[in-house]
Design brief:
By secondary structure, the protein is mostly helical. It has helices at 8-22, 25-38, 42-67, 72-76, 81-98, 100-112, 122-144, 150-175, 186-189, 192-201, 205-221, 228-258, 261-264, 270-316, 322-337, 341-368, 376-401, 408-420, 431-449.
Length: 450
């Protein structure tokens, strides 16, 4: 008989696990850098940031539970079976061994280790990164080979330590700010809310939410809960715990960044804001706290991503065991990490421009499914219109990184779309076409029915 009573501490631990999976070092850097740029407009900017940086990931987690899908491939297959496989593979590879997982190691090294090495040559830095990645992905592999213990290991061990370290630094900065809020950067003077939306858009957490949701749902089912409505309810509760933690941390770090200009000056990146703030408040001890925060945040995310990728590809290609897939992704992440942080970030941007609109669209369709009776034509037209402009954005972004970025064709397409398509220049030009595709799908479903 199903045990319907789940201890509060258990689903809170599951929520803390989810928070730790989401919260990588990028989530520390983005609000800190945005805080300095936003200045006195920080709370307006944070309102936008919380919508895309917290709200969308929460909706992604709930969408999987609400849809009753087995995984992201199952959900995306509502467009077409081949699309489900294609989308899922692209998503897992992007947040797995190609970009997000290697980034967890390189960010940990550059923020948590490199500052303690003193003056080191470029070759010395590469050797240090190589050695650090061996240890980092070795630990990630050890945690990932026993996914059934993920809640205990992350939710009850790593996450509390992570939260304590964050509260020590950002909480102290909130109590004793370095100075008054400065005038905002020109981008935040009139459009702080929209700018905050875009900053949150870049966290990648909405992409990961469709993957991490499965880990949470399996953890809930492991508690003895099998009823779909109860699974959804507990998954949502865990999601709200994670979202609340994310929101508190973002507000604290954003405010710390906004008040830091008077003490450490305007910095180029959020990483420098964090390291400068840690040094300002606590000196060498502050750097150690920051190193602990970054290492725990990145390690938790790496474990979650390797686990999720291993489980999915084991289902996709069962001839290879889960342990072998975990080993493959640990090694491949190690290899890509040694290309360095700047290269990883550089080539992840086009992938984000392609995948993020498709992810948001499929999340929205999951919630609207009952409105149109789950008709495949609605899924197809919405994703078709969204993907066309997502491909343009990804192609344009990639082309700018390569030779020939000033070709007439690209410049003309970009200029024309900027003139006629709302929000295109902000990277959100896909929204109106997605709505048009959805309406067209509704109309076609009515015509086909008649």
């Amino acid at each position: 008989m199903e045990n319907n009573k789940v201890p509060t501490a258990t689903f809170i631990a599951t929520g803390l696990m989810l928070f730790a999976l989401f919260f990588g070092a990028g989530n520390l850097i983005f609000p800190a850098g945005m805080g300095q740029q936003a200045g006195s407009e920080i709370f307006t900017a944070l309102a936008g940031f919380l919508i895309t940086g917290v709200g969308l990931p929460l909706l992604g987690v709930i969408a999987i539970g609400y849809s009753g899908s087995h995984d992201v491939q199952d959900l995306a297959s509502r467009v077409a079976p081949w699309y489900g496989v294609l989308f899922a593979v692209m998503l897992y590879l992007a947040i797995g061994p190609f970009f997000a997982t290697p980034r967890t190691a390189t960010v940990s090294y550059e923020i948590g280790v490199l500052p303690f090495l003193g003056d080191v040559s470029e070759s010395g830095k590469k050797i240090g990164l190589f050695a650090f990645c061996i240890a980092f992905f070795g630990i990630s592999y050890w945690f990932s080979i026993s996914p059934g213990k993920l809640v205990d290991r992350i939710g009850k061990i790593l996450t509390p330590a992570l939260l304590v370290a964050i509260v020590i630094l950002a909480g102290y900065a909130a109590i004793a700010p370095m100075g008054d809020l400065q005038a905002p950067n020109k981008d935040f003077v009139e459009g702080a809310f929209v700018k905050g939306l875009v900053e949150g858009y870049g966290t990648m957490d909405a992409l990961a939410s469709l993957v991490f949701a499965i880990i949470v749902i399996e953890a809930v089912r492991g508690m003895g809960v099998t009823d779909k409505s109860k699974v959804l309810g507990l998954t949502a509760k865990a999601g709200f715990v994670a979202a609340a933690c994310l929101a508190v941390v973002y507000v604290l770090i954003g405010y710390m960044g906004a008040t830091s200009v008077a003490g450490i000056g305007m910095q180029d990146t959020g990483a420098l804001v964090l390291s400068g703030s840690a040094n300002h408040y606590f000196g060498t001890f502050g750097k150690l706290i920051l190193a602990l925060i970054v290492l725990l945040a990145c390690l938790s995310t790496s474990i979650g991503l390797i686990t999720a990728c291993g489980e999915y590809f084991n289902r996709l290609v069962p001839s290879l065991s889960y342990h072998k897939w975990v080993l493959i992704f640990s090694i491949s992440s190690f290899v890509f990490a040694n290309f360095g942080l700047s290269n990883i970030i550089k080539f992840s941007i086009p992938a984000l421009m392609l995948l993020y609109p498709l992810t948001i669209a499929i999340i929205a369709l999951a919630f609207l499914n009952n409105l149109f009776g789950g008709k495949r034509i609605v899924y197809m037209t919405t994703i078709l219109f969204t993907s066309f402009f997502a491909i343009i954005d990804g192609w344009k972004t990639l082309h700018k990184m390569l030779e020939g970025s000033d070709t007439a064709l690209i410049m003309n397409i970009d200029a024309r779309l900027s003139e006629i398509l709302p929000l295109y220049s902000s990277g959100l030009g896909w929204i109106l076409p997605a709505i048009v595709g959805f309406i067209l799908g509704l109309a076609l479903s009515k015509v086909m029915k008649n």
